[in-house]
């Protein structure tokens, strides 16, 4: 299989990364919630393993696996993204894999990056939480700069929300969403129906109406977006829930990311257009 013509500048990341690698949880504290350590780097980001391996995409095998070709050998890689990714997972695309090991793994690789029209797109949806964890800890998300002691995966109603700050009488809940779809400069989420995402929005809306701070942060894991909108075509129910959440006081924000083979970092905030 021949690689598509691709012109990419390979740069070492210009940010300092001291966050846990993708897929590894922060050290546990008492109870089931996990504290996020404080980091200071500008901009906040997550570094990739130095031994990323280049390959060519053959096809998507199922919801969570792809077939790739590396050094003339076809092998399976884990895909940590349940979205459709139809515009990205095109046979023949250049991709980058991270080596992974574990007793319960079915593959030795994770799919991390896909080349698309001269840019790199980070397709591992777990990266969104890593980027936002670093941003919250560094106080880089101005909407929530008044909170500092963040915890991960805190129960709210019938859901687990990605981040929460529980400081005395003040509470704040924040959910992070990975965005990989961009059309004509507009980032869109979701690219497939998400009942779980809609449930999260309703939990955050109920939380906001009781006086707690709440927000949903859309992390666009590619550098070519200029605006963000909910994807009415893919999930009208989610779009309606997002508009209701903002009307109830939930912060709705989106951020573009810079992406290289060295890592992913938070870039500029994007205008959010809900109508």
CATH architecture of the largest domain: 3-Layer(aba) Sandwich
Strand-pairing-aware structural class: mainly beta
Domain count, please report it: 2
Q: What is the alpha-carbon Rg in Å?
A: 18 Å
End-to-end distance: 43 Å
In order across it, which strands form the biggest sheet? 1-9-10-11-14-16-17-2
Describe this structure in words.
The protein is mainly β. The protein has two domains: 69 residues, OB fold (Dihydrolipoamide Acetyltransferase, E2P); 144 residues, Trna Endonuclease, Chain: A, domain 1 (3-Layer(aba) Sandwich), CATH 3.40.1350.60. It has three helices and 17 strands. An eight-stranded mixed β-sheet has the order 1-9-10-11-14-16-17-2. Strands 5-4-3-6-7-8 form a six-stranded antiparallel β-sheet, with no helix packed on it. Strands 12-13-15 form a three-stranded mixed β-sheet. α2 runs parallel beside α3. The chain is globular. The N and C termini lie far apart (43 Å).
């Amino acid at each position: 299989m021949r690689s598509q013509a691709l012109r990419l500048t390979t740069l070492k990341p210009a940010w300092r990364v001291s966050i846990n690698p993708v897929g590894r949880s922060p050290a546990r504290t008492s109870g089931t919630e996990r504290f996020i350590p404080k980091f200071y780097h500008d901009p906040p980001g997550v570094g990739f393993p130095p031994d990323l391996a280049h390959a060519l995409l053959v096809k998507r095998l199922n919801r969570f696996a792809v077939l790739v070709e590396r050094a003339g050998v076809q092998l399976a890689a884990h895909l940590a993204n349940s979205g459709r990714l139809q515009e990205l997972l095109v046979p023949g695309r250049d991709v980058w894999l991270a080596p992974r090991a574990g007793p319960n793994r079915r593959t030795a690789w994770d799919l991390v990056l896909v080349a698309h029209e001269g840019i790199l797109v980070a397709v591992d949806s777990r990266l969104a939480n890593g980027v936002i964890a670093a941003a919250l800890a560094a106080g880089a998300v101005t909407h929530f700069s008044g909170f500092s002691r963040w915890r991960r995966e805190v129960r709210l109603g019938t859901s687990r929300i990605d981040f929460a700050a529980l400081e005395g009488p003040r509470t704040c809940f924040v959910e992070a969403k990975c965005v990989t779809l961009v059309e004509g400069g507009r980032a869109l989420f979701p690219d497939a129906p998400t009942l779980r995402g809609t449930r999260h929005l309703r939990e955050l809306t109920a939380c906001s109406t009781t006086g707690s701070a709440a927000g949903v942060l859309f992390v666009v894991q590619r550098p070519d977006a200029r605006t963000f909108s909910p994807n009415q075509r893919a999930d009208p129910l989610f779009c309606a829930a997002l508009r209701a959440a903002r009307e109830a006081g939930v912060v709705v924000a989106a951020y573009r990311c810079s992406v290289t083979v060295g890592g992913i970092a938070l870039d500029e905030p994007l205008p959010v257009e809900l109508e």
